Amino acid sequence: MHFSHTRARIIRSGEKLFARYGISNVTIRQIAKESGVNSSTIYYYYQSKEDLFEHIVNHIELVFGEDFSIAVEKNDPLEQVSELCWLFFDKYNQNINLVTLFLDERIKSNQNERVKKTIRKVENTINEALEKILDNCRDLGYLKSDLSNLVYIKMIFGILVETILFQKRSGSLLKNENQTHQFLTFRNEAIHLIKGILMVK
Amino acid sequence: MHFSHTRARIIRSGEKLFARYGISNVTIRQIAKESGVNSSTIYYYYQSKEDLFEHIVNHIELVFGEDFSIAVEKNDPLEQVSELCWLFFDKYNQNINLVTLFLDERIKSNQNERVKKTIRKVENTINEALEKILDNCRDLGYLKSDLSNLVYIKMIFGILVETILFQKRSGSLLKNENQTHQFLTFRNEAIHLIKGILMVK
Amino acid sequence: MHFSHTRARIIRSGEKLFARYGISNVTIRQIAKESGVNSSTIYYYYQSKEDLFEHIVNHIELVFGEDFSIAVEKNDPLEQVSELCWLFFDKYNQNINLVTLFLDERIKSNQNERVKKTIRKVENTINEALEKILDNCRDLGYLKSDLSNLVYIKMIFGILVETILFQKRSGSLLKNENQTHQFLTFRNEAIHLIKGILMVK
Amino acid sequence: MHFSHTRARIIRSGEKLFARYGISNVTIRQIAKESGVNSSTIYYYYQSKEDLFEHIVNHIELVFGEDFSIAVEKNDPLEQVSELCWLFFDKYNQNINLVTLFLDERIKSNQNERVKKTIRKVENTINEALEKILDNCRDLGYLKSDLSNLVYIKMIFGILVETILFQKRSGSLLKNENQTHQFLTFRNEAIHLIKGILMVK
DNA sequence: AATGAATGAGGATTCATTCAT
DNA sequence: CATGAATGAATCCTCATTCAT
């Protein structure tokens, strides 16, 4: 079988549990139970708990992979930043566990080198896209301040992360329509704010 | 003395280790070793590992406690926000471990209720101060956008957190003068950016 | 073919690994890897790890089987003992793994009954040959001491074993010519010593 | 407590079980059960199973430590060798487990470096004593053969080991008087044989 | 106030073995 | 004949916690 069913089940359960509780608070047996296999089976596919974790983290790279450069293809830089933000929010909606994992691991200090690398890579992908967008803004006469791109990047990233955290902590996205609406509104506000900031001549 | 020397040593070691490795990656014995006491001694002062952790997290409340309202005492709301940001950065400089712990715990989803409460309380303290500042801005004719205070709060908080994370990941603050200078510059930029955003009429 | 290629490969690998590391330090998977088959395949041929081990140990009997009686066919008992010793050394040269296994198992106390039996049988084969040789010596007027044959047997066996252990621990036989020569010399000395002892009138 | 009772109990049980079954066939739980402590307690005193094993093996050095040089203090080299042999047999009587362990480990090929070292050291102790005795023999005009000391040493060692193995495999020493007597006789014979060999002019 | 000794519960990992194909 | 997938039992080891002193 090319893409083992069991493998997929293990990964999915791992994703969920690691995201929720962190690597050291999840036992192999829990993952085994959640994925309906024997714990030895996990060792048949992955060399160790750490190995499984790394495989899961690698998925993050896949999720955040190419797409952000697509945003830059839009004509207007303000459209571009808007697109990038929506892409980011979409990723979250579609891979809540993975994105949660990403946010968690991003601020941990001691961790597996390979995990660290993946996190940096994902951040870089986003940063580079933002860098281009900011340059485009400047070309159009926007962003006349003498502040560095870096501050703007951190600001945009910061507000995106806070938006997601706000949502995450308010409970899962789909609880009811009202809430969904509320979140959509808030995301819209966030994007408007960012655009407003960049647009200043 | 209410606050025995031993107690203090234990707390300080716990702070350091918990901040660096997270609660589940630190053993009572490690804390005992770091603080030069026997692990049983820790149980003499604290009922359990969790209890010790809670006590440490409570320190965060002390650190972030009152001061932010001081910021609001300034005349100009732009001065107020500036003051608040510097306060935040100062807290970090003076309590790197505790602030790190705060940032870590802030994004974890599963955790001790009391820890959760403390984290919320600290966030609220900051948020309330920001809320007031934003209102003051509006009173002065700034911030003419129809965006909610909440987005502005998230934005400001986001950029503050990212600034600290940037610094934290670039290595300890005091490695050399150049670096210190670099960070100071960046912090300045961040504050300028925030003020610029709020100032818009 | 009675004796399939795969079977042979498994046995050979088992021999090597069991001799080197002992039964409990070798896993079925190691043997599978070494012999280039799947571990399930081993279970196709042998009922269990123990079963495989027994089959391998049985080889020892084949190796040490008949030949020692050949020694007794020589005319002179001193020639006989010399022949027996050389036979023993030759066995070692040609089946280092098996002989190593024999020496190992010989001194272990807890073991599979069938293994024990095989070891005893091999020892008996040698002992009986030696017994005959000693009787022949006495018939010729040698060995006038009132010591029992048993002590002589143990002595001869002891020196043979020590000679092999000496060589085994000094490294593999064929490292270089010098070493080979050195071992040959030592073996010669050992046999001379034994003959000298038996020859005493 | 200087010499923890628990420690002693663990060591004794380990000695017994390791000697009987070999390190990899004994579980920590078995040792715990045999010594009447919890298996965690073993880890309180020893870092790992291997560590415990090393500590036990170190005892071998203590047992075989100095005494063999005492043998050399006798006047006559034949007395000396006799003394040395009896010392060896006595060690066995008093520390059956440890000596068994020594014999076992002596022929294993793959093993812990520290264990290997201890085994070599013990062998050296005996070999050096034998070397001196052989030199003394030569000084007195004995041992006129042109064979090296090494062969003689191996021969003596071989017969001693075989004698012990013989006894070990025949069952524990003290089963009944008859058997005791039988073993004593055999040991006597072995020593006589050795002396006879050395005495040859 | 402080500690050394001891433990029970639980965790990661290994491994011989089975079974469907 | 041969194998990939799967498992249960067992193993080493860790760690928070307790208790007598």
UniProtKB/TrEMBL annotation, chains A, B, C, D:
A Pfam entry, by short name: TetR_C_29
InterPro entries noted in UniProt: Homeodomain-like_sf, HTH-type_Tx_Regulator, HTH_TetR, NicS_C, Tet_transcr_reg_TetR-rel_C_sf
Keywords from the named record: DNA-binding
HTH tetR-type domain location: 4-64
Presence of the UniProt keyword Transmembrane in the record: no
UniProt KW DNA-binding keyword: yes
UniProt cross-references to PROSITE patterns, sorted A to Z: HTH_TETR_2
Residue range(s) of DNA binding per entry: 27-46
UniProt-recorded name of the protein: HTH tetR-type domain-containing protein
